[in-house]
Design a protein that fits this description.
mainly beta; Jelly Rolls; 6-stranded antiparallel β-sheet; 15 strands; globular; RmlC-like_jellyroll; RmlC-like
Length: 197
């Protein structure tokens, strides 16, 4: 398993090394020691849940989603069949890259994965039919902490692929707020002066 940091600090691409012969291949999809070595912040992340989604149509958009503390999730995303454009948006207050986005094409053919730490909104668009996406998460799903933001927020300006089809959005994702309308939820909390100080 190889790793490569992306331009926005915290985002990391992992690629499985495949050992093949005439039958096919064998690959180690995850190794904790390599994952820990790649963590720039030295954090010891532990995965507690595996999720899987299936999208039949090309151009299906899912996201942008995140969970708030104390149930904030880090995600290790992988495409098991087909191909997706996977997107992460930095929503860490005080971050030098706040409001910036990065994207990576994940595909079954490439065998790559994207690590998205807590403090990022996540979404993707399918680039092929019948896409299966799997992601390991560091916190359990919690409906009360489940949040989102607009997939096409003009202030963020994600360059979605031409196949992206807004008609595929879920009812929930059609009404998500803009980033500017979301109170800061990650990063350093503001210092509040106590009475008498």
């Amino acid at each position: 398993m190889l790793f490569r940091p992306l331009a926005i600090p915290g985002l990391i691409e992992f690629t499985c090394q495949r050992h093949g012969d005439e039958r096919g291949y064998f690959a180690e999809a995850f190794r904790q020691s390599v994952f820990d070595q790649a963590m720039e912040d030295g954090a010891n992340h532990r995965f507690v849940q595996d999720n899987e989604s299936f999208s039949a149509r090309v151009g299906t958009i899912r996201g942008l989603h995140y969970q708030t503390a104390p149930m904030a999730q880090g995600k290790l995303v992988r495409c098991l069949s087909g191909a997706i454009m996977d997107v992460a948006v930095d929503i860490r207050a005080g971050s030098a890259s706040y409001g910036q986005w990065a994207a990576l094409v994940l595909s079954a053919k490439a065998g790559n994965q994207l690590w998205i730490p807590p403090g990022f909104a996540h979404g993707f668009c399918t680039l092929a039919p019948d896409c299966r996406v799997s992601y390991k998460v560091t916190a359990y799903y919690s409906p009360e902490h489940d949040k989102g933001m607009r997939w096409d927020d003009p202030a963020i300006g994600i360059a979605w692929p031409a196949v992206a089809d807004p008609e595929t959005l879920s009812a929930k994702d059609r009404v998500q707020p803009l980033l500017a309308d979301i109170a800061p939820i990650f990063g350093c909390a503001p210092v509040i002066a106590l009475e008498g100080e």
